[in-house]
Amino acid sequence: MKKKIILAVLIIVVILVLLFMWRLITLNNIKKLNEESIKISNIYYVEESGSTIEEFWKKDDIIKEKINSGLNNSDMTFWKNSNTNEEYTIFESSNTYLIGAEGMAYEPQANNIYLLDNNNIIILALNPMVKIHTKEYDNKSCWYLKNGQEEVYIDKETGIVLYNKNEQLGREIKLKYSINTVTDEDVAKPDLSDYKNRYEQ
Q1: Which pTM value belongs to this model?
Q2: Which of 42, 99, 98, 93 is nearest to 68 (CA)?
Q3: Which residues contact 45 (CB under 8 A, 6 or more apart)?
Q4: Domain residue ranges in the chain
Q5: Which terminus of the chain has a lower count of CB atoms within 10 Å, N or C?
Q6: Tens digits of per-residue pLDDT, 47-98?
Q7: Long-range Cβ contact pairs of 62-71 (< 8 A, separation 24 or more)
Q8: Is residue 5 classed as helix, strand or coil in its secondary structure?
Q9: Tens digit of pLDDT for each residue in 86-104?
Q10: Would you say residue 179 has pLDDT above 90?
């Protein structure tokens, strides 16, 4: 009887260790895949958060980002060429621009996974309250992570976050993307002939 109890305990321990290893490896792979998604050289995405809609085009060294916050006179466009070090911020409502693009995002906001960026992977793997499994979102097979007030769907193929909800931060972001669809015309240098430099008015 005693041997059976010991054997049962050993089996349970082995199962728990294997489960922990699977969770640890899976979380590490998700984090690496998500980090690799930032390196995609040709991508378009549209991101929706509340009343704000953000469009993003990236082709090699050129990035264009357009933000519509849903508020009057708040639309703006960022454009940057890392190869020539040219960058502009364009304010559509006032027909003005600034040289520089300090407010530009270089990756989707949704890709900022608070759960993975601010916690030790080992602790997460050990925590039974952290859910890790496969789930479908927007017709794509995703890794689904949930911990307390944060819920994330990550595209298994690309590592891009399609849905990111964090109640603690008051954030809910939905994202759609396409790869290798951005053309030279999409990221062409903006024509500023009808715009005035804000510092020269």
Answers
A1: 0.83
A2: 93
A3: 55, 56, 108, 160, 175, 176, 177, 178
A4: 2-39+111-174, 42-107+181-200
A5: N
A6: 998 888 999 999 999 999 998 876 665 688 999 999 999 999 998 878 888 8
A7: 62/187, 63/104, 63/106, 63/187, 64/186, 64/187, 65/104, 65/105
A8: helix
A9: 999 998 878 888 888 766 6
A10: yes
Q: Which residue type is seen at 87?
A: E
Chain segment 103-124, per-residue pLDDT in tens: 666 666 666 777 776 677 888 8
Read out DSSP for 68-134? E-SSTT--EEEEEETTTTEEEEEETTTTEEEE--TT--SS-GGG--HHHHSS-HHHHHH-TTSEEEE
What is the pLDDT at residue 169? 78
Residue 56: name the closest of 33, 37, 77, 82 by CA.
77
Tokens 């809609």 locate to 53
Contact 77, 192 (CB under 8 A): no
Distance CA 62, CA 119 (A): 33
- Dist. CA 71–CA 177, nearest whole Å: 24
